[in-house]
Amino acid sequence: MDLKGIDVSKWQGSINWNEVKKDGTEFAIIREGWGKKSPTQIDKKFKENYENAKAVGIPVGCYHYSYADSVDDAKREAEFCLENIGDMKLEYPVIMDVEDKEQLKLNNRQRTDIVKAFCSEIEKAGYYAMFYCNLNWLKNYLYKDELLPKYDLWLAQWSIAKPSCSCGIWQYSSTGKIDGISGNVDLNVSYKDYANIMKTKGLNGFSKTDNSASTNYFIYTVKKGDTLWAIAQRYLGSGYKYKEIKDLNTLNSDMIYPGQTLKIPK
């Protein structure tokens, strides 16, 4: 399963998520923050991007940029990340971004233990942990055999036809162009149906019951003039049941647009 995605932060500015969705984006990884707890180290677009992506039905995950230089630091970064996530529901993993040049002053043992510590804290809190790095870091600066396959890898490897090693998500470009985003944006492919994993296993803010309805639905393409109320009236017998459609599609608003695909309970 190859799903098309992007990753974004405050550097992408204000994003038109309707246009992003129409351009074929199937998931988004959003920067949540960086380092240890500080009000100045939460990405100022994190909440906005999360809410607006979810509102148009784009599944999301998040990443935390790490500066950790010890296991204790890594745990505190994970705690900060979890605090910022709060009660959000994330269809994609919570990811540690390990690439900072200051961490090159450490040795492989220290760096590997840092990744383990962060991911362990994320898992203990009921989230699906993942780590991000490029191929050079994976081969030369981490003990990859200790991290894989225990934790999924988000691999950064650009300008090639396919990734050089197995990974859950592959970031294949840093200069992508997507409708609704000004300038460059990172482009990704996901090789796993993470949204189904989260709901089936009851991770990332979902309970296992959140997936019960998803096994019995059909896909509807929104037409001009449609509203959630009208669709619910037509297929569910009552406009008041539009909330069932919202819940199944994890929509945070009543806004829909022509061409959007929706899961409709049978």
Question: TL;DR?
Answer:
By secondary structure, the protein is α/β, with parallel strands linked by helices. It is built from 9 helices and 10 strands. It folds into 2 domains: 3-209, Glycosidases (TIM Barrel), CATH 3.20.20; 212-265, Membrane-bound Lytic Murein Transglycosylase D, Chain A.
What does this structure look like?
- The protein is an alpha/beta fold.
- The chain folds into two domains: 3-209, TIM Barrel; 212-265, Membrane-bound Lytic Murein Transglycosylase D, Chain A.
- It is 31% helix and 22% strand.
- It has nine helices and ten strands.
- The protein has helices spanning 17-22, 46-55, 71-85, 108-124, 135-140, 144-147, 194-201, 228-236, 242-248; strands at residues 3-8, 27-34, 60-65, 94-97, 129-134, 152-156, 169-176, 185-190, 217-221, 261-265.
- The chain has an eight-stranded mixed barrel. The chain has a two-stranded antiparallel sheet with strand order 9-10.
- A hairpin with an 8-residue loop joins β7 and β8.
- The chain is globular.
- It starts with a strand and ends with a strand.
- The relative contact order is 0.15.
- The model has no long low-confidence stretch (mean pLDDT 93).
